[in-house]
Amino acid sequence: MHIEVLLTGNEIMSGDTVDSNSSKIAHHLSKLGLIIKRKVTVGDDQKLLENELKEMTSQADLIIMNGGLGPTVDDLTAEVVASVANVKLVEHSEAIQHLNDWCSKRNLSVNRANYKQAMLPENCDILANPIGSAVGFIVQIGECTLMCTPGVPGELVPMLDIIVERLNEKNVYSGSKILRLQTFGMGESTAQQLINDKIESWPDEVSLGFRASLPQLEIKLTISEKKHLSALLSCKEMVCELLGAHVIGEGETRLAEEVLKLLSEKKATLTTVESCTGGLIASMLTKESGASKAFHSGLVVYSDEMKKKLLNISQETIESEGAVSESVVREMAHNALSMCSANYVIAVTGIAGPEGGTKEKPVGTVWLCWGTEQNLKSCCLFWPLERTLFQTLIAASGLDLIRRHINNLDPLPNYLMQKVID
C-alpha cells in the first residue's frame, strides 16, 4: 500500500512548531505493518497545496493530510480538498452537531468563525474528533483515499486510533511487522557492537534499527512478510537476553510508566526528593495516567536552607560534607520516607551547572539515593553535560534505578560503573 503524508502550516515551515505529528502517524500505521513512502510539508498557500495534493493523489493509495482544519483564514484544508476533488464546500450536518455539542459541554457559544469548521467537501465522510472542535473527514479522489486530520497533537492521537481501526476493518494489513524494544542506559554503538559480537547468525529477513530518543534508546526489529514471524521473535529473544535489565519493555513503554506499573502491582508507593533535577522525576511520573495510585509525593528542596527547614538535614552534615554528598542524599531519602510514609524513595542532589562547581566537586557531580527504609543504596556520578540534558538523564537514571530495585535486578548497571567517581 503506497502511503503518503501531507503536513500543512506556515508554523512548521518557519520552525515555530516542531513536527511531531508525522512520527505519531508513522507509529500508528506501523501497527498494521504499513510504512509511509513519502512525506511533504507545505505552508499555508492554497495553490501550492492544491498542486502537491494533485500529484500525491495520482500516485498514492492513501494520504493522511494533517493540519488546516481550524476556524481561521489560514486553515485551508477543506477548500484545497474540495478544489482537487472538484466538489463544492457544503455545511455538513454531522460537523455542525459535533460543534454544537463541543461548545455546549464547555458552556461556550458557537460563533461565526467556528462554523467554518463545518464547511466541508460535498459527500465526504466524517472522521470523529473525540477531543477538539474540528472534525476530520475522508474523501475518495480517484483511486486514492484521503484522510484529513487536525494539526493539534493531542487531537491527532485519538483520531489515529480511529484511522487504524478503519484500515484494519478493510483488511489492509501488509504482512510486515515492527517490534520495538525500549531500553535505557546503553548507547547505540554499544548495543550494535554487542549484537555484532554475540549474535553470530542474524537472519537477513529481520531488519535491525535504532532510534535514540532521550532518555531512552529504541531498538526496532522489522520483517516484511508474515512468514518470517518466527525469526522476528527469535531475534527479540536474543536481544532481550543480551541486553538484560537494560530492556524496559516493548512498544512505547516509558521508564516512568514501567515504575508506576511495578509499584501498583506491589500496592506500594513512591516519594521523590529532588534538588538539582528540580522536580523533573516527579513531573515524568505525573505525566502518566493513573500516577496517583502509586506516586505518593514529590519534594523539591533546592537551597541548603530548605534542605534544613523542610527535611531536617543537619547543619553539621551540610557544613562538613557539603550539600552534594552521600551523607546529605541519604539523609534526604531517609527523612523523606519518614515524612511522607512511602514505601520507596528516589533522592538526588548535584551540580547541574554551568556554574557552581569546584575543583573537588566539578559541574556534573551528582549523588543519587534510592530504595526502601531497610535497603537504601547510593552512588555518585560525574556527568558533565549541558544542563537540560544532565537533568533529563539524571532523572531517568533515578527512575531506572528504582525500577531495577523493585525488580531485584542488578543494582549497579553498566552506565553507573562507567561513570562512578572513585
How would you summarize what this structure contains?
The chain has 422 residues and is α/β, with parallel strands linked by helices. The chain contains 16 helices and 17 strands. The termini are far apart.
What level of helicity do the residues show?
40-55%
From the spread of the alpha carbons, the general shape counts as: globular
Low-confidence stretches: none
CATH C-level of the largest domain:
Alpha Beta
The CATH H-level homologous superfamily of the largest domain: MoaB/Mog-like domain
* Beta-strand content estimate: 15-25%
The second-level CATH architecture of the largest domain is 3-Layer(aba) Sandwich
Number of strands: 17
Q: Give the end-to-end Cα distance, rounded to a whole number of Å.
A: 57 Å
> What is the CA-atom radius of gyration, in angstroms?
26 Å
> Helical segment tally?
16
Mean pLDDT value = 93
Number of domains: 3
Report the CATH topology name of the largest domain: Molybdenum Cofactor Biosythetic Enzyme, Chain A
The largest beta-sheet arranges its strands as: 2-1-3-8-7-6
Notes on the structure:
The chain has 16 helices and 17 strands. The chain is α/β, with parallel strands linked by helices and 422 residues long. It folds into three domains: 3-169, MoaB/Mog-like domain (Molybdenum Cofactor Biosythetic Enzyme, Chain A); 177-250, Alpha-Beta Plaits (2-Layer Sandwich), CATH 3.30.70; 255-419, CinA-like (Maf protein). The strands form four sheets. A six-stranded mixed β-sheet has the order 2-1-3-8-7-6, with helices on both faces. The protein has a five-stranded mixed β-sheet with strand order 14-13-15-16-17, sandwiched between helices. The protein has a four-stranded antiparallel β-sheet with strand order 10-11-9-12, covered by helices on one side. Helix 3 (46-57) packs across helix 4 and helix 10 packs parallel to helix 15 (387-406). The relative contact order is 0.08.
